[in-house]
Design a protein that fits this description.
Layout (H helix, E strand, L loop, with lengths): L1 H31 L2 E7 L1 H9 L1 H8 L8 E7 L16 H5 L6 H24 L3 H21 L6 H23 L12 H9 L2
Amino acid sequence: MDDKCNCTFTYTLAAWLLRFWLGTRGVITGLVKFYGDKKTLTAEALELKKEDPAGFAEMLSAPGSDAFYEVTKGFGFSAYKAMPADGIPMSVAGFKANPLMPSFMVEPYAWVLGPALVLTGLALIFGFCSRLTLFVSGLLYISLTYGFLILEKQLLPADCTLGVASLAVHMLLIVAALMLSDYNKLQLLDDKKICKLLCKNK
C-alpha cells in the first residue's frame, strides 16, 4: 500500500513539474512579445493638447509629428509584436508571400499568438482545465512548426532544423504531461467530467 502511495506521489510531482514548466514557458514567451518600443506623448505635447485639442490633433497628422512623442522600452499593448513586419523570412511579409500560407490569416494569427501563449500558460500554472489547455498548447506548437516547415527554403537549414527540433521537444513534453494528467492534483477547474463524457460517447 505504501509503495503504491509513493508511486502515485512521484507521478503527481512529475505532473506538476511538467505543468509548471510548460505554463512558465508559455507565459514568458507570450509576455516577451509585448516588450518593445512604447511611444508616449511628451509633457509639452500633453500641455499643448489641453490648451488646443483641435489644433493638436491637426498637428499630429502633419509631417514631423514624431517630435511630440518620446520612445521608451517597456511592456504594453502598444509595443506588441508577434513577428517583424518585414525584412526576414519569418515576418508578416515573408509569410504573406509564401503560397502555402493564406495571406489573410497571417496578421490575425500574429495578433492572437502572444495572448494565446500567455492565457494557456496561466491556465496551466493555475490548473484550469489542464487537459484541454495542454491540447490547445499542442495545437499552437503545431502551428509554429508549420510556419518553420513552409519557410524551409528561405531559412538556413540549421535554423529550420533547430526550430522544428525544439518544437518537437515541446510536443513530447505536452504529451508526457497529458499522460500524467490523472495524477495532476491541485487544480482550479478539473476537466475529468469532460473526459468522461467523451469516453462514454465512444
